[in-house]
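Write out structure tokens for DUF1611 domain-containing protein.
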Amino acid sequence: MIRLKSEVVLPQPYLLFLGDTTEPGYAKTAFGLRDWAGDRCLGEYACDGASVTTGLPFLTPEEAAASGAEALVIGVANAGGFIPPGWIPALLRAMEAGLDLVGGMHARLRDIEPLREAAQRLGRRLIDVREPPAGIPVASGRRRSGKRLLTVGTDCALGKKYTALALAREFTSRGVDATFRATGQTGILIAGGGIPMDAVVADFAAGAAEMLTPDADPAHWDVIEGQGSLFHPAYAGVSLSLLHGSQPDVIVVCHEPGRDATLGYPDYSLPGIQDTIDLTLALGRRTQPNIRCAGVSLNTARMDAASAERLIETEAGRLGCPVADPLRGGPALERLVDACLA
């Protein structure tokens, strides 16, 4: 078995770094760690000008280190995955306080000279989790034992990771042997391993998905975090590679009600949920002829409970399949899980 490079023992607990972020969507790594690894997060730290907060206590690096933190995790996933020069003093301060740095950006911490020099001088670690393992093969197309579920979306950043985590948790609570398979930096930080699909050379991306979801016991479920969207003008390639390589038995389509345009691409309207189901099944049959859609996950975080419940019921009737917001739970989620496992 090839050991994934991202399966490292991360220093924890964490201090979450928000940089100078003013767009909540770019702080999804910090929010994901808060929501799914909260016991490992002591607080947050940001530069002047930041307006986004996770709601965790604001701690200086010195205060965090005194409270037991071992690492500062960059909680931002901005467009392009770069580390602005304005962040460097804060990152240096964290190392001076005794914290290692953990990053999931496309920019590598070790490639930034002031950080590299400080790490060598202070004996700190620079850990980049957005690095694929060595030796990824070209996809074989071979069918593998075990069962697989893939979350797919009408767009980026609308709940594919949260849905996969929630479904894996529900499967486990029912006594089903299930593993969450992370495909992005936040998921890797939560799970402690995975493959960052958007950092894999395109020709090997489907092979990476095969590697991430190896042969397993026939009753075992891999619940795979989706990436991008098959309709996305920039990221459809990684979505298709993940679909073909993971060969899912089941898909769950994720959507955020009220979002009409592709995030960051206002000239591109969002596809409909049914269009997303149809295209995913058509393309997925190339490597998994028996692929099926179990249902839909709606991100209703911006809606009140009553409105969310009405929409879930309406969409379930319109689409003819279970619809739920996994974070709200309830009977709707139970029906979605039943359909996944059927």
